Amino acid sequence: MLAAIDVSDMHCSNCAARIETALRAVPGVDALFVNPARRQVLVEHAPDIDPYLFLTALRAIGFHPSLPSTGDHSKPQRESLMRIGIAGVAMLQTMIGMVLLHSGAMNGIEGADAQLLAYVSLAFTIPVVTYAAVPFYLSAWRSVSKRPRLPGMDVPVALAILGAFVLSVWNTGKGHGDVYYDSVTMFAFLLLAARHLDTRLKARFDLSSALLAALPDTALVETGTDRVATPLDAVPIGTRVWVPAGAQVPLDGHVVSDAAELDESALSGESAAVKRAAGSAIHAGALNVGPGFAMTTSAPREKSRMASIAALADRAAAERPQAAQIADSIARVFVPGVLLLAALSGAVWSLVDPARAVEAVLGVLVVSCPCALSLATPATFTAAMTRLRQAGIVLTRSTVLETVPTLDRAILDKTGTLTVHEPKLQSVEVTDADWIDRETALDIAAALEQYATHPIARAFPKPRQAQVEQVGLHTGAGITGTWRGQPVRLGTPAFCGAAPSTDTATMRGVLLSVNGRIAAQFTIDDPVRPDAAAAMRALRAHRVEPLMASGDTRARCAPLAAALGIDFLSEQSPESKLALVEKLQAEGHRVLMLGDGINDIPALAAADVSATVLESSDLVRSHSDVLLLNRRLDCLPLLFDIARRARRILRQNLAWSLLYNLVCIPLAALGLINPALAALGMTASSTLVLLNASRLLQSSHYPQPFDRTARGVVTPSAL
Questions:
Q1: Which residues does 376 contact at the CB level (< 8 Å), separation at least 6?
Q2: Tens digit of pLDDT for each residue in 278-308?
Q3: How confident is the model at residue 339 (pLDDT cuts 50, 70, 90)?
């Protein structure tokens, strides 16, 4: 089972390391995924383990965890704003006081007047030190007092605030010496404001939680003539529910009314409304844009399709890509290194110029920013996955974003991937129109197919007049019956006793025989996806060469490949597809595999990146890195675009984080950066990383919805 835990006071990689160590000590934990960017932990655990054990383990090391459904997120935000307000007022007052104090020293204001200004600044600083900055002390203390002891980024922050304050109070009491009340209040205010902004920015990355939170809390359960608002957790499977116009579908289920018109953009990313016929499957989160309709529920809330998508996205976001692991390794030794450098700087300045020693120590403690380094990778990858999710693409592993920019080959299955699982009747050819004309032959075939459930049956219209009797279904062959006392057969050429006259592209020949004589041939076509050609061109624009690998015959594959302008391999078995992937990899290529069938699983598992549609089987999805929620191939170029932008922004974030610290820390140690300027630089550094990552949420290339010829009522058998 998977448990999600929110940890609002997780600020850096050292916090994440301490959390991971504590939770791994809890019996029954199978896997952990810690995401500092979203301040969330995902725990895979045995079914008999109570998730509250994880909360207890985290509280024991000083954190304040909560389960997503029970956490009160408004109270911490109110407290944060209160602390920011107090620190902001104190900063303004102390800065005015310090300006007057320093200008007064140049204009002869000294003695009692100067002492009064210092005490006024002290009075305004006390609430900041004793209330507004308390979270920094608590975070610093638990990182060094609770096992495992890994000093977090708040250790230098707490030392800087308390050190500057104590020294300022000491000098104020003596009546001479420098005071740093303005630096203390400014540092606290800027850091509190930056963390509040960080929290707001991180909330933008959490699309899954936002979608789940938008679901209704109740469903209108129909009980006879009444409709009762019932909590979703109290609605059993099979319950009849009414969905009013303009309301969201509360639970997964099936349409009971004649039809429903839904906006499924929250699930698929496609904005155009779709119609679902009676018996069609529908999913929680879809918006009813038509009249009200009735449905029956088929799954509880926690097992809805939206919940499963959110769980996949959360797990992917919590994975630690290689870049994040390297950054975390650096960040874990960063704080001890900063503390050592601050001590060395103070010792050297005590020998060179004792009056500047304290300022140099405070500058080093304040200017250092491991937070930016720790957040560079998770913030970038989380923002990228959020943008992809908005477009109907879910990553099951965040490490895919590192691999996608390196891909140069794409292998695509034909049936269900390049073509649509919506068979159409392409043509009707009769052998003797004077004996049985086209309309009669089609009517007989339709009368037989109404008893079938296989996909080809959907290509035939409803029968008009023909009536058949003694119908028999022959799996994999066809249908038998009698029409006007004559035996009729509909099915494969061998079943009907003749060879097909056409065998082209994606078309399949279905024959009709009457009284042992071939009467007509029906050509069934799996239509090419409307966006397939554009998607192939876009892949080439991203320097990815597409290749179709299909189990169909060459005659059926060649015309489709020619229409799409791609190479193809026909009559490919699962073993052949796997060998193809391995051959390309041996030649130095990086391979994307896109398929949706059980026969594609070996190749999906071997490919560098694997993708499938959400409607594929659980087994296929379990071997896929990318899920296409809207079944659109022209989303693939967006995946490449976002992955490459993410790589570029990640490099920018890491470069900025390293450059900032490599330049500013030595300057502070040399006494060239005063504490106030250091405070501004430190807060700006981490905020800049998050703002840069949030650029991925801005609009990028995304294909417009295409006109689907099959748009309209979707029958139950089509789902």
A1: 323, 327, 650, 653, 654, 657, 689
A2: 888 998 988 898 889 999 999 988 788 877 7
A3: confident
- Give the three-state DSSP class for 393: strand
Q: In this structure, which CATH number among 3.30.70.100, 3.40.718.10, 1.10.540.10, 1.10.10.10 belongs to the domain 2-61? A: 3.30.70.100
Q: Does domain 393-420+528-629 have CATH number 3.40.50.1000?
A: yes
pLDDT at 1: 72
- 575 vs 547: CA distance, rounded Å: 17
Looking at residue 501, what DSSP letter applies? Answer: S
Looking up tokens 């309309």 gives 439
Q: Which residues of 96-123 are buried (b: 16+ CB within 10 A; e: fewer)?
A: ebbebbeeeeeeebeeeebeebbebbbe
> Is residue 638 within 8 Å of residue 385, measured between CB atoms?
no
pTM over 0.85: no
Mean pLDDT of the 504-517 span:
72
The pLDDT mean for the chain works out to 81
Q: Which residues share a beta bridge with 262?
A: 274, 288
Please give the CATH architecture assigned to the domain spanning 215-307: Distorted Sandwich (2.70)
> Taking Cα atoms as reference points, which of 399, 332, 371 lies closest to residue 626?
399
Strand-pair category, 567-569 with 545-549: parallel
Q: Are 422 and 711 in contact (CB under 8 A)?
A: no
Q: Tokens 């509250």: give the residue.
A: 52
Domains of the chain, by residue range, sit at 2-61, 215-307, 393-420+528-629, 424-525
Q: Are 643 and 404 in contact (CB under 8 A)?
A: yes
DSSP state of 109: -
The CATH architecture of the domain made up of 424-525 is 3-Layer(aba) Sandwich (3.40)
Tens-place pLDDT, residues 370-392: 667 767 777 788 888 888 888 88
> Would you call the peptide bond into 378 cis, given omega within 30 degrees of 0 as the criterion?
no
The answer on pLDDT for 124 being more than 90 is yes
